[in-house]
Amino acid sequence: MVNNLAAEDGKIAIYDCPGSFSDRWIEVCAQRKIPYIAVDLFANDLFATLRRANAMALLCHPPMADRRSALAARAII
């Protein structure tokens, strides 16, 4: 895979949920030098953080067994 993302283009935001897909996503971004920012899906300033980081995408795979995560994901999507 070729990294065509320039630093000025922005970052990929990743919902950092230990034990989920985010562990691998963060590892891949670090290995391939893809700019990313780890975010908290439940932060009050999530959208402001995404704007400040010039985030182009939000990778999120919350555990659906966790009702709070499922509701937050549904509201964002």
Secondary-structure map with pairings?
Layout: E1 11-15, H1 21-31, E2 36-39, H2 46-52, E3 55-59, H3 67-76
Parallel strand pairs: 1-2, 1-3
Widest sheet: strand ordering? 2-1-3
* Total count of helical runs of at least 4 residues: 3
Shape by Cα distribution:
flat
Alpha carbon gap, first and last residue? 27 Å
Overall pLDDT, averaged?
A: 83
Q: What is the tally of beta strands?
A: 3
As residue ranges, the low-confidence spans are: 1-5
H/E element order: EHEHEH
Structural class computed from helices and strand pairing = alpha/beta
Structural description of this entry:
Helix content is 36%, strand content 18%. It has 77 residues and is α/β, with parallel strands linked by helices. The protein has one domain. A three-stranded parallel β-sheet has the order 2-1-3, with helices on both faces. The model is unreliable at 1-5 (pLDDT under 50).
Give a quick summary of the entry:
The protein has about 80 residues and is an alpha/beta fold. It is built from three helices and three strands, in the order E-H-E-H-E-H.
Properties at a glance:
77 residues; alpha/beta; three-stranded parallel beta sheet; 3 helices; flat; disordered N terminus
